[in-house]
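Chapter summary example: a protein plus nickel (II) ion.
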Amino acid sequence: MPVTLTYHGHSAFGLSDGSSSVLIDPWFTGNPAATVAAKDVTADTILITHAHDDHVGDALSIAKRTKATVITVNELGVYLQSQGLKDVVPGNHGGTIAFKGGTAKFTQAWHSSSLGVGDDRVAPGVPAGFIVRYGGLVIYFAGDTALFGDMALIGEEGLDIAVLPIGDRFTMGPSDAVRAAKLLKAKTVIPCHYNTFPPIEQDANSFAKALVGSTSSTAVIMKPGQSQTFEP
Ligand code: NI
Ligand code: MN
């Protein structure tokens, strides 16, 4: 069945197959790229890659309002439970968790993971990515990560779409994202985590050109607020 993928800017995405919906790294409040407010989105499931503010985002308020199930790394899940979320399913690298309409498998990500609690900073667990099977599609959300060679193993899963950060500085930049795409062999690559603020400004069109020049993948550059339908 066709899946509608919506880009909410930065690393926030939505998926819908017509009978269920998923949010990934749902940062709306304070996200300069977001075109909708947290109170106006809905989800049955929320996936969170790691604890940084620009990824946890509005997960707490959205999950409390919509009763969405939150799937995230174990320690961050325990933290969210301590904040009053009941429906949290914690997992860890290599594990697969079923949700309404699909499954999410935790992958590694080379990054850090922490959040501010009062005046302190805590580090609840490790960062992750997700291989999401949904509506007949296999979609890899890399989360925040550097390039790593084991992306070749993720590529063996037969990816339709790879969602990759290209912003540089906090994640891989465009040239490493092209090298990642070579390992991942996805039909479609969607860049994210760029142009949200000045330190991660990138030219997505030149990324798309480099990608087409050296991989078999096609880039789909999405504007924040834009939706696109994908068929398996
Ligand atoms: Ni991060
Ligand atoms: Mn980030």
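Key point: The chain has a mean pLDDT of 97.
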